[in-house]
Structure formats: structure tokens, C-alpha cells
Predict the 3D structure of the following.
Amino acid sequence: MSEDQVALEIYDTTLRDGAQAEDVSFSVDDKVRIAKKLDDLGIHYIEGGWPGANPREIEFFQAVKTVPLHQAKIVAFGSTRKANHSVETDQNLQALLEADTKIITLFGKSWPLHVTDALGTSLDINLRIIGDSIAFLRSQGKRVFYDAEHFFDGYKANPDYALETLKWASEGGAERIILCDTNGGTMPWEVQSIWEKVRQVCDVPLGIHAHNDAEMAVANTLVAVQMGARQVQGTINGIGERCGNVNLCSVLANLELKMNRRILGEGRLGQLRNVSNFVSEIANHLPNKRQPYVGDSAFAHKGGVHIHAVQKNPVTYEHIQPELVGNRQRMLVSDHTGRSGVVGKIEAFGVNLAKDHPRLQELLAKLKELERDGYQFEGAEGSFELMVRKALGSHRPSFELLGFRVIVEKRHAQETPITEATIMVKVGDVVEHTAAVGAGPVNALDNALRKALESFYPQLKEVKLHDYKVRVLAGNQGTGSKVRVLIESGDHKEKWGTVGVSENIMEASWQALADSIEYKLLEGE
């Protein structure tokens, strides 16, 4: 079997390396849920964590044993023994055994700088540490993958020693040897030349573990695959230490769609966007809309020339079909949009409108006028759809604002302000007058509006406000400058954006909030 036909293993370390990212903290339940998603996607190995690092890691390895995984194998991760410990007494190795996984990934030092400065031991002792740690775990019936930490930096500093560490790992019984670009600063051409040297002297199947500090992780990983790598390690969305690990979302799409490597199984690549968003949600991160393949902007078109061409043939400005990775084509609406773009967007709402319809030119003019005033519809498609439906006479407001008042009171310097909103709305012939408190003026107004409307429209209980952004449009008026408020809301099915613009931040917020509610209520039309 030639190298390009050898089965490629995908090893996910989101639950361990990804959890080391800034602003990420997974609970045990979070990790179990992510593991299930990764298994459904078709990932082969899931690194669950470092047993013994904290009680939560131990609890995960216990909990995941009760989870029926269809394909993925759970892997425990840890370091080789300490220099002053025997393999039988080393607590780290014992914790790895207690995790009770069939596979263990050990990492060890490849770079003399780390051996002397981090471990504080000699180069010879480090070799023995690598060899006997792996051999001990093998003697306990475990399969062992060996992560050669800082291998590329180590090779550039002392190639003979770096290769010697791999020899000891191989003789110890490592089943896979993973070459790690731990500092993330290696260039693709360096990966290629070093890989060529390694595979001449190492018979154990090799893998790649790349970090992204020089924005080269995906490139380095794909080069390694071209050079015959058997295993690819990475994280969903590229989360990880510092600038992150290699992004498996990009790697998987590139491998299957650009390099013709069928890895995940029939149709599973179509789950990629869903898995990406799921991990972002669990990590409490806003999804990166500009992320290749799976981001909201990956197949979004704004320029009139682009939109016109894509409507004729998507291949003109799309390198793949969005559906292959579970994404979709989007036409952004802005003052760059031409007649074709607006018609295409309107048709996506389920509204048929001929290009010569007299209202179309009015809509185009209104759109450009509003954007000149500071509105931005490319991130507020909910507000745009409402504007279109109102202009065409196909929508009537679900409620009428009669007035609102927001009071912010701070009684003492050290006291948290108290915010209360009072609102009066009319639904049909019924006037509803309610009040609510909140964490701030906008939150209080949102709470009051919902309180007033939920008895008429119970489906509003499903709506959550996901994001709230304020931008000052021109600072030359100081605190009296016009502001734009963008709100992202969602329910259990979708998310939508709405916009408001005013010199008064509460008025701008009200516009966006009201549109958010009205958009949700379009379901009943």
C-alpha cells in the first residue's frame, strides 16, 4: 500500500489542549457532550485530559466509560516519569494507568534546552526517561503514542539528539511517534525537510501536532500529511494554548475536499459546521464568522459584481459547495448591493419580486439612504427582512409602542446602580403597561418588553439575546454622537441580527430590540 493510501488517523485534543486556551473551562458534562459530538463526526481518537492534574480530569475518565462511543477511542495524556522517580513509583504514570484507557499518549523532551532548563537533568538521563516510561506502560498492556514535544525546535538546535530521542521512544515500544511543533514557529518548508530526514531513520508511523503561533499550523499539518504522516492531532476551531492548535475544521475540510483523503465516513463532513458551533457554544465563545469553511462569512457575498456572478454560477466566487461542510451561501445586504443582490435576498425570504417591480428601486434607494445614515444590514438581516415586508405591504406590526421610561438610580458611590424600565404597548385593542428591572438599561427594557408581550405571544419565551454591540459612528459630536446598536438573538432553531441607529443609545437599542421581537413573530405569518 502506498503512503497516500494509508489510513489517516484524526486525533482530537480539544478536551485537553483546547481546554488550556484562555477563557475556556469545560465541566465534566461539557467534555462528555463534546466527546459524543466528536464521535458522531467520525474522529478516531479523543484525548480526554491529563489524569491526576485535577479531580475533574479523573471524574471525566470515569464518566466517559458509561458513554457508548461508536468509533472514537478515549486516550489519556501525560508526561514521562520524573527524573528522580522510578516508573513504578511515579505518580503521573500511576494516574495514567488508573484512567483505565487502552491507549496512553506520553510526551517527552526532544530539545536539549528543555532537558537542561525545564527538567533540570542530563541529556542521557532524559533518553532513559523516555525509553523506560514507554516500556513500563507497554508492560502494563497499554498502547502508547509518543508526543515528541518541541521536536522541530529540538532538531534545528541538535538534530542528532532529537533523532536519538525518537530511537529511544521506538525501542520502548511507541506505536506512533508524533512530531510536535509546540512553539508553533516552524515554517512549512522546514517541516518538509526535517520530516524527510526523520522518516529515513524512524520505522514507527509518524504523526503531526502543530501549534499556530506563526499562522502556519494548517499548512504544516497538510505538508506532514503529504510527507506520509499517519496521524493528525488538533482541536476543533483551533482553540489551545497561546494562539491555539491546528484547526481540525480547516484540516478535515482540506483533507477530504482538496486532497481527496476520505477520512470521516460518508456524509459526516456535512456535520462540520454544526460541531464547530457546538464547541464554541460549550466554550462560551462567539463563533468566528470569518473561520474558513464553517464560519458565517465563509460563503457570504456583499459586492454587487460578486452577487450577480454567484447567482449565475456559484463557482465564480465559491471554492466548494457550502453544503459539503454544513454551511450555506449568504447574500449580504449593504450599499454595495445591486438589484440582483436585493432580489436574491428577497427571494430567500420566500417573497417573489420581479426585477422590474416598481417597489424594488424604492427599496434600493431606501437601503442606500439608511446605510448612509449609519444602519448596517449585513449583520442585521432580521431588520432587513422586516423592512422589505413592510415596504411590500406583507407585514403588519405585532404590537405598537405607546411609550417607555428607563430609570437608573445610584444612591451611594459603592452601590451597584438600580435599573428599572416601564413600558406601555398596545396589542390589538389591549393596552399592556408593565415594569421590570435589569442588569442595565437595555436589559431592563428587554425584560419589560418581554413581560408585556409574552402573554400574547408565548413563543417569545424561546428567544434569547446572544450578543449586544454598540458602535459610535462619528466621534466629532462627543457624547452626542450617533450610535449603531447591533443585537443578535436566537431561539432553539436559528439566530438573527437586528439594528438600530440614533443619537440616543436607548432609542437605538429599542429599535433593535423591537425588530428582534417582530422577526421572531414572523413565524406566524
Observations:
- The chain has four domains: 9-282, 300-372, 373-391+461-525, 399-456.
- Residues 123-139 form the longest helix (17 residues).
- Residues 300-372 form one domain.
